[in-house]
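Annotated sample (chain length 152).
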Amino acid sequence: MNEIVKFYTISQVPNDVQRKNSRNVSLLYLQTEDEDITKVAVTENGSRNYYIYNKGNLILEKKDISDNLYYVISNRGKLREVKKQVTDIEVNDRPCELFTYQGRLQGLQVVKITFSGREEFENFKRPTWFKDELKNPNYEKGLGDFLSIEKE
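Output written by the structure step:
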């Protein structure tokens, strides 16, 4: 089966939605010559991972990269950094992730839902507090602040 991942902006999470496993995540999007290629270094709970995507499909994953490799990866010119808090929630008995953005994106909240197939997606009843669907799975690549990492 083909997995379906959907992203929705939301107005506000209702108080009765249980929140658990909250963590801070930093995403560094590296500039590339090819617009189909996305390179990102992700820091979460002190662990750093490096990913390369081609048109949204994962083609390289390096887990727990060293501080030295992270420094080399993140110092190749201008980067786009996105910071968010990720919290696990349930929506209509479905596990989801709530992204609460920080910095310039303060106030933006997005829910990520993964479905195991088309039927599961079509049977999902979207709650009224969901607003718009984000159709671009790489929407975060265009968000955030540009910054230059200086050599320490």
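Annotation: The beta strands are 4-10, 19-30, 37-44, 47-54, 57-62, 78-91, 94-101, 109-115, 130-134, 145-148.
Annotation: The domain at 4-148 is CATH 2.40.320.10 (Hypothetical Protein Pfu-838710-001).
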